[in-house]
Design brief:
Blueprint: E1 2-4, E2 24-27, H1 38-55, E3 61-66, E4 70-77, H2 108-118, E5 122-128, E6 131-137
Parallel strand pairs: 2-3
Antiparallel strand pairs: 1-2, 3-4, 4-6, 5-6
Helix pairs in contact: 1-2
């Protein structure tokens, strides 16, 4: 695997001057292709990066791997993780930010789930020791 990084903060059409954590990305060494809707995949990735940058407190790791299918894991540390209900993470309007310090609507991860299912894939949330992993499967 090789690694790469995005610039200051990856948000489509937005350039942020304030220092933020730069995602660490692990790529496959061989070319890998998936059959998927490009617009939907971009929206899924945008939503997951935005979610991690808005609610994470540490480095975002994006890990692309391949077994029978291609999977992409988005991993980041979250503050006060015990408030996250992993069973509701992809529900419409769910937000674990009880203080509402962020302007999130609770739709980002819900949209991720809808789009992944529409493309024939799936999404799964895993949470241990304040580390949240969103795993995109069957791309």
């Amino acid at each position: 695997m090789t690694s790469g990084q995005f610039g200051p903060k990856y948000m489509p059409g937005l350039c942020v001057a304030a220092p933020v954590a730069v995602p660490h990305i692990s790529f496959l060494t061989e070319p890998t292709f998936v059959i998927a809707d490009e617009t939907m995949v971009k929206r899924v990735v945008d939503n997951l990066i935005s979610n991690a940058m808005n609610y994470g407190i540490d480095e975002l790791k994006i890990i692309i791997s391949k077994d029978d299918n291609v999977s992409v894991a988005f991993q980041n540390t979250v503050q006060d993780g015990q408030r996250i209900d992993i069973n509701k993470l992809f529900n419409k309007f769910y937000t674990a930010d009880l203080s509402r310090n962020h302007s999130g609507t609770g739709l980002g991860l819900y949209i991720v789930k809808l789009l992944m299912e529409k493309m024939g894939g799936s999404v799964k949330g895993i949470f241990t020791d304040n580390v949240k992993v969103i795993l995109l499967l069957s791309l």
